[in-house]
Amino acid sequence: MLVATWNINSIRARVDRATAFLERTGVDVLALQETKCKDEQFPAAAFESLGYEVAHVGHSQWNGVAIVSRVGIADVEVGFPDMPTWGDPPAAEARAIGATCGGVRVWSLYIPNGREIGDPHFTYKLDWLARLRDAASGWLAADPAAQVALVGDWNVAPLDSDVWDPAFFAGRTHVTPAEREAFAGIAEAGYTEVSRVHLPAEHTYTYWDYQQLRFPKNMGMRIDLTYASPALAERVTGVTIERNERKGKTPSDHVPVVLEIEAR
DNA sequence: ATGGCTCTGCTACAGAGA
Q1: How far is the CA of A213 from the C1' of B1 (A)?
Q2: What's the CA gap between A42 and A173, in Å, rounded?
Q3: What are phi and psi of A106, to 5 degrees?
Q4: According to the model, what pLDDT value does residue A264 have?
Q5: Is residue A7 annotated as involved in ligand binding?
Q6: What is the Cα–Cα distance from A258 to A240, expressed in whole angstroms?
Q7: What CATH number labels A2-261?
């Protein structure tokens, strides 16, 4: 089974890319982030005509996460337990959706950006990751053999070698010790970040800014990552970063990351 | 690939992204 994650940066602007990607790769489960639309605006028919089912949550032009699956999509859950809220009045944002697909509990996650160090959004980001750690820890406590994939845009570069120039990021978000510790909390809860296990090379990126010719110069970041529960991690036989999806006309600034999972 | 940002709502620009 193939499970992929992709920050698509508007599903309406790139639905043709997404469907072409599914047809080309045969991915069974695709987790999307930054769909940037409301539920009724999501182009579900384009996926359904290819034999996929869709679960989506989106409230506005911001955020939005989805799971697209051709191996079932059961027990859809919008948001995880005790997920932090944002705004005034406080409300749950469309940043997490879970579903059981082909026997794997897949979570499509869009971790808050944080904006600037010290910004309330930065505190929100750290809190969001801490609550996710607690939820993920609970899932393993309830079932140590759980098949759980936490995939998405984490907005954290765990290592200095995950960004094109650590000096550029000094004083910026995504690389601070606080963010990296919050990200590591998921590992401390028992999960393995499987993309690095299979793709350990430094300067392996999943995102390149649209500005300043960052992609042709390969000045990117590795922020689209996958935590797998112990029982799932041992079934992951390979990971692929679909770098070519950053090329061509109107790409997303992120590319898909594909996990190959062996059958049980 | 041969270039120096893009999406949304809205219709002028502002907010957000990272």
Answers
A1: 10
A2: 30
A3: -100, 130
A4: 84
A5: yes
A6: 5
A7: 3.60.10.10
**Total-model pTM:** 0.98
Residues by CB within 7 Å of nucleic chain B, which ones?
Answer: A 7, 9-10, 12-13, 34, 36-37, 41, 61-62, 112-113, 115, 121, 153, 155, 173-174, 207, 209-213, 215-216, 221, 223, 247-248, 250, 253-254
Distance A127 CA to B1 C1' (A): 40
Q: What are A36-61's pLDDT values in tens digits?
A: 999 999 999 999 999 999 999 999 99
Q: How far is the CA of A61 from the C1' of B9 (A)?
A: 8
What are the residue boundaries of the structural domains of chain A, listed by start?
2-261
Has A153 been annotated as catalytic? yes
Place of tokens 């600034």: A253
Angle between helices A120-142 and A177-188 (to 10 degrees): 10
Over residues A207-260, the pLDDT tens digits come to 999 999 999 999 999 999 999 999 999 999 999 999 999 999 999 999 999 999
Concatenate the DSSP letters of all residues of A7-28 into one string: E-S-HHHHHHHHHHHHHHH--S
